[in-house]
Amino acid sequence: MKKLTLLLSLFVAMQSVHSQELESLLLASEDASKLTESYINPVMKGLMYSMNGSWATTGKVHKTLGFDLTISANASYVPDADKLFAFIPSDYNYLTLPNGETSLPTIMSDNDYETTVDVEIDNGDGTYNVASFEMPGGITKDLPINAVPAPMVQLGIGLPTKTDLKLRYVPKLNFDDSVEANLIGLGLQHDITQYLGPIDKLPLSLSILGAFTNMDVSYAIEDEDPSDDVTVTNGEAAFEMKTWTVQAIGSLDFKIITLYGSLGYNGGKSSIKLKGTYDLEYDVEDGSGNVVGTYNDSVTNPINLNFESTGVRGTLGARLNLAFFKIFADYTLQQYNTLSAGIAFSFR
To answer: Does the 4-347 domain belong in CATH 1.10.3470?
Structure first.
């Protein structure tokens, strides 16, 4: 599953990040899904919060056919509690940590060390299928910022009903002939200041926003080391994320600066599927620990994980207005607090 986890956290610039060999976790047999889920859970949550950022930097909408092009970067910070996960032996059927560790780093940990995990599967006849693999550490040292980033490009256009239509679109892209990624998002921001009488004469602007984003990433898994305990045939990792957000937005719009804030709610669902056939090789030991043979197993489409997260969000930000050129930054308080910054070219 080389580079898969890195695609999730930085799908546009994954080539610069250290690769992970997660397919070795399949040696954990029935425990592989639980172990993988615990390891990558923070990046799935972080992406949801990052992808819901930077939809609006003002409560004011465009005039009819006015438009803007916004380029932004959102980075969601993983809480310390989610940088490690507890390893509770009773939660697993076949796994032990030989060094007595009680916790392991998640993908978004600052610790990049690998941990040896031992596998022992009771065959019921006095013999055991045994193996070991290296559980990967965190990747944040290889990222440009210690957070889950999501770059975005967005086009907004004014409709006759004092509503902005917002579009996020990345056509299917190919990276290094093994990775495909695409993204689409739609949003509507409707002005409600128009319904509040004389208040529309003030620099205060109020609006409501609803938006969703869908991202798909697939990665061809190559058998990098034919001599190891895992052989890959037609391997592919497929990732899909669907996020949505609803927000009430307010801003004070002055000539040079705009101060804005919002209060809303996020939601998101995602899935990861590991496809293909994986041949696994174990040593067979007797009750005294002597190797008495080998055992080969084969699994097809072994991983199918689903994630879901929801939560309240609140944002405060500022935008510098230099004619049609805008520079903005904001900070969102939510389960994974998110910093957003970017530029926009706006024509009313």
So the answer is: no
Residue boundaries of the structural domains of the chain: 4-347
pTM for the whole thing?
0.88
Alpha carbon distance 164, 146 (integer Å): 33
Please give the backbone phi and psi of residue 277, each rounded to the nearest 5 degrees, phi first. -115, 135
Q: What is the pLDDT of residues 73-102, one digit of tens each?
A: 999 999 999 999 999 999 999 999 987 788
Terminus-to-terminus CA distance in the chain, angstroms? 47
Stretch among 16-25, 31-40, 182-191 having the lowest mean pLDDT: 16-25
